[in-house]
Design a protein that fits this description.
The complex is a heterodimer. Chain A is of the alpha/beta class. In chain A, 30% of the residues lie in helices and 18% in strands. In chain A, the strands form eight sheets. Chain A has a six-stranded mixed β-sheet, with helices on one face. In chain A, a hairpin with a 5-residue loop joins strand 3 and strand 4. In chain B, strands 10-1-11 form a three-stranded mixed β-sheet. Chain B has a three-stranded antiparallel β-sheet with strand order 5-2-12, with no helix packed on it. Classes of the chains: A alpha/beta, B alpha+beta. At the A-B interface, helix 4, strand 8, helix 13, helix 17 and helix 30 of A face helix 1, strand 2, strand 3, strand 4 and strand 5 of B.
């Protein structure tokens, strides 16, 4: 009866004023009078309890009140459940504009009442009917007014590797995400911003429901890299992976299992952590140091400052009179509405700061927000800094007291005892050093492409203004000798004493509060050897030849085994974000070298094609977890609940469950779980974080509010503030405790390491003319410098397969009209971009926003070679080189010479 | 009568197009149909002097939805009277029961606001998220902008706060349709009718 009633209600549309029917579905709770229960109010109360249970099961469900226990607990029985609306949903999907999108629940939702609240307060909002006696029972009916299903909002986050983890409010209807809404809790102001997701997070729905979503465990059936797979069961998948792991461990040892760098899923429990946890339980794995993002700055800066040089916060820009940044576009790379990009705008609005941006491109951080743009050839930042230093020194604009008291090696006075005569910075710049070359503005102009008058004026501005805030993005260091450029830029604040004071910075990238949120514990890795993240292809090809002094191997002098097992979780490094993809492809395809490739992923990426076993991961919107603010939120921090907004549609599993399944094959499931489910681990981790930050709400409240924000926590805004106040008490972590302009450690490395011809490591930060710079003789054949930019429409390679983003942020080769004219190119023309390593096809965008002699296109597009080996996917790494930088052994992915021709 | 309109702070816009995607997400807009559109306007020249480069480059973006004009060209040309201004707030809306999909409004609007929906063969456009307004929320594009560059409200009030500028290049002269729009120009804005720059994306004819 109840079911018939429900169906009848659902099929009766109520006409509304704008002509579309209001479709109503019901949930029914039933209770009857009995010998135990003769009170009408109790019966109605029981019916209401049954109704609540019914509503919790979803729409179109009825439950009857069955058992009333003495302890106050009760039970209900399902009396019906059917799936309504499916047909109608589909019809309406085709013609979205004809949807009658108005309902009581939506109306309530718009007034701030979510369906969840609506549901959990059944009694408060249900219309209770007393049904006539012929039904022989009393029943309560809740009329849940819905059109195409009511909306429910869940919390989630965009957990990709842009540095932010912007919260997303995921609106769900009929078990399907229908849109994303912005985080808007609390007051929105510069100091306490709503963490508004950028264009990528707002497009999440298309990534969640993309055609490339992986649905089932699969095994490779074609050649490796061919992309042919066959569906298998989870059992078969776990058995195969376990057997391959066993074989690798027995034959080569755990050192032969490589955990590939991958940063696609930054959530705290069921992201990367279970993978590490499992592998550590199995005896460990070969890990890497450094990242494709920032290896050279993180390796280079400590020789000057003793640590990676986390800069002053963006908020400190407000206290500066002059802001100068190299290769930094905060409104591209930190584009969250609640992160450093927004902070930068706020700081500029609040202060009175002149902004000079030095970049080969007129970026989206400029557009009139800058006071001056100085175009510079890629890879020549160090030369500019030296030209500036020449003016500062010769015009007596250096802070001699600061250099004497806080630094080592500016002039001969503070040069370490063991250093050769005249090897100090001052003598090097003035032309009295070993190279006998004065680093005049004229010299710098010819290298950088910047007019002499601009260099002199810039130097005087830096010397005459206080305070000056100098920083750099990560683009500068992703070069053939980026380590040197990084330290050269640091020389500008050092020379002028713009260090440790309000409105100053170290020359590093702007800093960030880290709240130290706790993730799933991973345990310790028994394998102590690590390789540079960029040399894994070498470690496959010639692993046992790799040494500490030649290849930067750490923990041992020599690798024991080449990489034989590739563990690739949530990453597209394997065949997309690594370099020289045509060569990488050949290395990966050779099954005698790397014998097994495991890929755990949620999309069919370029790298997923190379899997032997390919396992489907959940997206965060299907998972239960939590995430923290990342490393780009600036002075604000937050935790965001990842709630299961929608159920997985196929056989996808979380990384926790996948690793648990493999752990079971090795008999270590208990050790892996420690008796906790994923959900229990999430709560455990949250509570551990709460121990560090007692002001956080309890877990239940956190789930309810979805986000917990914290601001600054009183941490210092100014980098090296303590050191500046008291350099004896607050020594730096350099061997001398001071800023080391001359680094004895680097002098020793330069003497001891085996470097290929052309690679240079120097104790001073010095400009080095590198391979594939514009001064390389190769430029005769390949006259254009190419680098990859961070476009708005992708985070590295994530979101590449989102149609809206490709529509609005298409991949195009940016080329100056001067260079386009030489090649007869018009806007929109298809072009070939090529060098000895490969060819990429793209349309050209002829624009004065890129300087002549330089071309660029957004990095991260998915590698898609055609039969002729030409990349139609537009992936820049078809053109980049596998040759590492000298010190960090890192990725020089912005150092490329190419030619461009009409396709 | 109130008249709703938009304020766009072009000096803050970064061309990220979050407003556009939020709008597409809200309204289920397929590739090619955009109730809000962000265009780049860029120009300038380069000169090599003694091996170094000199330039006078400018660039900026303009984000435009429907301006719910005081003299809407779309309303004037519609042969079926399907387009009308809402009496209480001035939003220009399409009655799809009357629309025949002739696309005259699309040609008439100098801002490209009416967007043709091939699936239903009707015109569609920005309705100021009028349903969201009921609950006191702002249009989705306004809530989405990471730089807080878009505002929505009574145009009289927006003009009182932000002034009356309603056009820089490449926008049409505001006298044409009297848009309910206020902009804050970026520092290097060029005047209406400027020919030094180029618009991207290029207008697509179909």
């Amino acid at each position: 009866m109840a079911e018939r009633l429900g169906r009848a209600v659902e099929h009766t549309g109520i006409p509304l004023e704008h002509g579309l029917p209001l479709i109503v579905s019901v949930s029914i709770g039933a209770a009857s009078l009995s010998s135990r229960n003769t009170n009408i109010d109790t019966m109605l109360g029981n019916a209401d309890k049954a109704l609540c249970a019914a509503k919790n099961e979803g729409r179109n469900c009825g439950r009857a009140f069955a058992v009333d226990r003495a302890d106050g607990r009760y039970a209900t029985e399902r009396i019906f459940l059917w799936k309504g609306r499916e047909k109608m949903s589909k019809q309406n999907e085709a013609v979205p504009e004809q949807r009658g999108e108005y309902s009581m629940v939506e109306h309530l939702a718009r007034q701030g009442v979510s369906r969840r609240q609506f549901m959990t307060a059944c009694s408060a909002v249900t219309a209770t009917l007393v049904v006539p006696p012929f039904l022989r029972s009393g029943a309560a009916l809740a009329v849940e007014a819905v059109t195409m299903g009511s909306e429910q909002t869940f919390w989630s986050s965009c957990v990709v590797n842009c540095g932010s983890r912007c919260p997303l409010k995921v609106v769900v209807r009929n078990g399907e995400v229908v849109r994303i809404e912005a985080e808007n809790s609390g007051t929105d102001s510069c100091g306490t911003p709503h963490v508004r997701a950028c264009v990528r997070g707002r497009a999440m729905r298309q990534r969640l429901y993309s055609e490339e979503r992986l649905k089932y465990p699969m095994k490779r059936v074609g050649a490796r890299g061919e992309g042919k797979f066959e569906r298998i069961s989870w059992d078969e998948a776990f058995d195969t992976v376990a057997a391959a792991l066993r074989k690798t461990i027995e034959k080569y040892g755990n050192d032969a299992i490589y955990y590939q760098y991958g940063s696609g899923t930054y959530q705290l429990v069921a992201g990367r952590a279970p993978n590490f946890r499992l592998l550590n339980l199995l005896g460990g794995y070969l890990n890497q140091y450094g990242t494709y993002s920032s290896a050279q700055i993180r390796e280079g800066m400590p020789y000057t400052y003793g640590d990676g040089g986390n800069g002053s916060y963006m908020t400190e820009v407000a206290n500066a009179r002059l802001y100068i940044s190299f290769g930094n576009s905060p409104l591209n790379t930190r584009q969250s509405g609640g992160g450093k990009g927004y902070e930068w705008q706020c700081a500029k609005d609040a202060g009175n700061v002149r902004t000079i941006l030095i970049d080969p491109m007129y970026t989206d951080s400029m557009l009139g927000k800058e006071d001056e743009w100085i175009p510079i050839r890629p890879g020549t930042d160090a030369a500019l800094c030296e030209g500036i230093a020449y003016v500062l020194i010769t015009e007596n604009k250096v802070d001699q007291a600061f250099l004497d008291n806080y630094c080592v090696g500016y002039d001969e006075k503070t040069l370490p005892a063991g250093a050769p005569a005249k090897s100090d910075y001052r003598n090097y710049i003035l032309g009295n050093g070993a190279d006998k070359l004065a680093k005049t503005p004229g010299w710098a102009s010819q290298i950088t492409g910047i007019p002499v008058s601009t260099i002199v004026r810039l130097a005087r501005e830096i010397g005459d203004t206080k305070p000056v805030f100098i920083s750099q993005g990560y683009g500068v260091q992703r070069q053939a000798n980026g380590e040197q450029s990084v330290r050269a830029i640091a020389m500008l604040p050092i020379l002028t004493g713009n260090i440790g004071l309000p409105g100053t910075n170290t020359g590093a990238r702007e800093g960030d509060v880290e709240m130290g949120a706790v993730g799933l514990p991973t345990g310790a890795n028994p394998v102590k050897v690590v390789i540079p993240f960029f040399l894994w292809t070498d470690a496959i090809e010639r692993g046992t030849e790799m040494t500490a002094k030649r290849d930067g191997i750490r923990g041992v002098d020599k690798l024991k085994a080449p990489i034989k097992f590739m563990w690739n979780y949530a990453g597209n490094v394997l065949a997309n974000q690594h370099s020289d993809l045509n060569r990488t492809d050949r290395i990966l395809r050779d099954e005698t070298k790397c014998e097994f490739v495991l890929v755990i992923e949620n999309q069919m990426t370029a790298s997923a094609r190379y899997a032997d076993i390919l396992l489907p991961d959940l997206m965060s919107q299907e998972n239960f977890d939590y995430a923290a603010d990342g490393y780009a939120s600036g002075t604000g921090s937050f935790l965001v609940a990842l709630q299961q907004a929608v159920k997985p549609r196929f056989e996808e599993r979380s990384s926790f469950e996948i690793c648990r399944g493999i752990a079971k094959r090795f008999g270590v499931e208990e050790k892996f779980t420690e008796g906790r489910t994923q959900e229990q681990w999430v709560e455990w981790c949250y509570n551990e974080t709460r121990k560090k930050h007692p002001e956080l709400p309890d877990f239940a409240q956190f789930q309810k509010q979805g986000i917990a924000k914290m601001y600054n926590k009183g941490k210092a805004n100014i980098a090296l503030e303590g050191f500046r106040k008291d350099p004896m008490k607050n020594k730096l972590k350099t061997p001398s405790g001071k800023i080391e302009i001359y680094s004895e450690r680097l002098a020793r490395i330069a003497a001891e390491w085996e470097l290929p011809p052309g690679d240079v490591i120097t104790p001073l930060p010095q400009y080095v003319t590198t391979w594939e710079s514009h001064l390389d003789p190769k430029a005769a054949k390949y006259p254009l410098q190419l680098y990859g930019l961070h476009g708005h429409g992708r985070t590295h390679s994530t979101y590449h397969n989102v149609k809206w983003l490709r529509e609005l942020h298409p991949d195009m080769l940016l080329i100056n009209p001067v260079d386009a004219a030489k090649r007869g190119l018009q806007n929109g023309d298809p072009v070939r971009v090529f060098n000895d390593r490969g060819t990429v096809l793209l349309p050209a965008k002829v624009t004065p926003r890129i300087m002549p002699g330089v071309v660029a296109f957004p990095q991260g597009a998915w590698y898609k070679p055609n039969k002729a080996g030409v990349d139609e996917g537009g992936c820049i790494n078809t053109l980049t080189s596998l040759r590492p930088s000298p010190l960090a052994k890192a990725n020089p992915q912005h150092t490329n010479l190419v030619q461009v021709a009409k396709a | 009568m109130a008249q709703y309109g938009f304020f766009v702070d072009m000096s803050k816009c970064t061309g990220c197009k979050t407003c556009q995607v939020a709008c597409k997400d809200m309204n289920n807009l397929e590739v090619g149909r955009n109730f809000r559109r962000v265009s780049e306007y860029a120009g300038g020249t380069w000169k090599e002097v003694h091996g170094a480069w000199q330039q006078d480059v400018f660039a900026y973006y303009v984000s435009i939805a429907c301006n719910h004009c005081a003299q809407p060209a779309c309303v004037e040309v519609c042969p079926k009277g399907a387009l009308a201004k809402r009496a209480d707030n001035g939003l220009v809306l399409i009655d799809q029961n009357k629309c025949i999909g002739c696309r005259d409004c699309e040609d008439a609007c100098p801002y490209g606001a009416p967007q043709y929906n091939r699936a239903i063969r009707r015109m569609t456009k920005c309705d100021g998220c009028q349903d969201r307004l009921v609950g006191g929320a702002q249009p989705n594009c306004v809530d989405a902008c990471p730089q807080r560059a878009i505002e929505f409200g009574d145009i009289g009030e927006l003009r009182r706060v932000h002034g009356t500028l309603a056009a820089v290049a490449p926008l049409p002269d505001a006298a044409t349709t009297k848009p309910s729009l206020v902009i804050r120009p970026p520092r290097k804005a060029r005047p209406v009718g400027d020919k030094l720059g180029a618009v991207w994306p290029l207008p697509v004819e179909d």
